Each structure stands twice: as C-alpha cells, then as structure tokens.
Amino acid sequence: MKLRWHGTAAVELIHREGRILFDPFVTLPHAKYRTELSDFDGATAVLVTHGHFDHIASLPALVQRNPGVKIFCTKTPYVTLRKRGVPRKNLKGIWYGDELWINGFRITVFHGKHAVLPGLSAKRVLKMVKSPARGNVPWLLRNHLSFPENDETVFYLVEAEGLRLALMGSLNLREEEDYPVETDVLILPYNGWEDNLLPAVSAVERLKPRYILLDHYDNAFPPATTPLDLSPVLDTYGSRIAPLRFRETLELNARLIRMESILEEGNRLIDTLEKQLEELRRFQPKLRELDHYYTGPRWREDYLMDERGLLKDVPKRGILSQDGIYNLLERNGEWMDF
To answer: Which of 24, 174, 288, 319 gives a 20 to 30 Å CA spacing to 305?
Structure first.
C-alpha cells in the first residue's frame, strides 16, 4: 500500500486495485503547502471524516471536475454538501459500525470525537487581522459556521494488502468506543488543541500503533492556523513517529513495519532489563545487610518478641514472616547467577 499526503487532512491511499482519498481540501493563499483541485483529479472515492470546511469545502468543485466520484460521509456533511450543489448520486451515507469495500480496501467506520478547539480570543483576532494572510479572514468568517461537525467525527480502520491502518478524523477519542488497537499505522491529526501533545499521547497510549504518521499540522488556512512545533511529540516517540511530507509517496509494507516494531520493542525491553539489573547490582550491599540481619541473632530476637505480642503496636512487621526474607534472597541469588 502507498500513501500520499496532500496537506491538511487530505490523505490518499493507493494499492494495486485502486485508490481512496480522505478529506481533500484546497489550501488557502499564504499556506505553506499549496494544493490545487487538479491534485485530486481522477478520484473515484472520497471518504469524509467530518463536516468542517477544511475537510469538505473543496468537494463541490472536485465533483464538478470528477463527475463520477462517490463521496462517503455521515449525515451532517451529506446535508451540507447537498446544500452546496453536490448531486445526490455522488453521495453515499455511512454510519458508525458500517463495513465498506471500496476499490479493494476494507474500511470499518467508528465514532470518533473532535478536538476541543481553542476559543477565539481578542488577542488571536488582532493577530489575524495584522497577518499577511488577513485577506483570508472574510472567507474564514463566512465558512466557519456554515460547515458544522455536530459530533459526527469518524475514525476509520482501513485494511488492504495485509496492512491495518487507523485514521483519526480529529485528535480525540470517545471513552466508550471500542477502537482497533495495535494497528500497523496510525494517521494522527496533530491539530485542534491549545496544546496537542497531551491528547496525542493519550491517543497513542490507548491505540498502541506500531508506527505513527502525523498529518493536519500545517497552516492550511492562515491566519487561523499557523505552523506547529512537532518536536514535543517527535521527541516522545522517537523512531515510532514521523510527520508526513507534502506530496511525498510512502510505501507502507506491513511485514517490515511489524518486524521493525518487534525489533524496537525487543531493544526497549532488553534496555529496561539491563537498567534494572544494574540497579539490582547496586542494591546488593543493602541485601547483604538484610541477609546478615536474617542469619544473625537479631532477626530471631525480633521474631520471638513479636510472638509474645511485644511488637503489636509496630504497624509493619512483614520482615518477621517465615518466608519473606528467605524468598527474596533466593530470588536475588538466581538473578545474580543469571
């Protein structure tokens, strides 16, 4: 399977039987990455994650250029697109729990959740009107409320060629939804929060993907968006994560991704074990002190005092159990021999 990123949340997946396109959007003037409608020519299947303008505003024009395209979406974007002139024949309604077969891809639909967008403060508005991209502000104001989401964000699981890919429609998850875990790839939209790191970490720790690719981190509609600093999340996950590169085509090989994941996890586990063994070695003087206490007269004296009820006010006396120290010292000896 191949993957190509067209900026914003526009992800194209390609394999030998066909291709599918998610959320194609023509970026606004002054965006770092400039897309054109022609970038999406030839599309036959578009899947929508939710109804905000940066996910569906370009679809009416795309349909005019590609009259045979089929758009798969939930109710709210369906209604929005019909109001904007997209013919009913180009639209296919979907809902959570649906399983779709499109151009050789098996796609399962889950109920996602949208990020909690930061408020529009006076400081932010002032910064926008002073921006070189302020000419986009009227368009943004007109379209901000015209493209509702209505709690209909979609999370997709895509399967083809033995590879399982999860694509989040926004940087949030529902607590009650049973999402697929340990997929080969997770497309993570790094956008939407005042601080994106915490929700990103929460999603990754819950979904446990083998490899993470970041999208939606660009300034697709300035001045409302600005380029984001990816270093916090990249530093957190190291070689498990990478930002998608504009118009770059990636070859996603399920076997290599899985073997790479095993290699990295094996190294992580052994590194952790080696550190813990080193800590255990440094702890040996204290264990020898414990051994000396146990095999000498002191432990016997304390044990007899406890038997007579003279230590009943001491809250913690596990050290006086018959097997506690012995078992610990035996286990320690086995690890030291190892």
So the answer is: 288
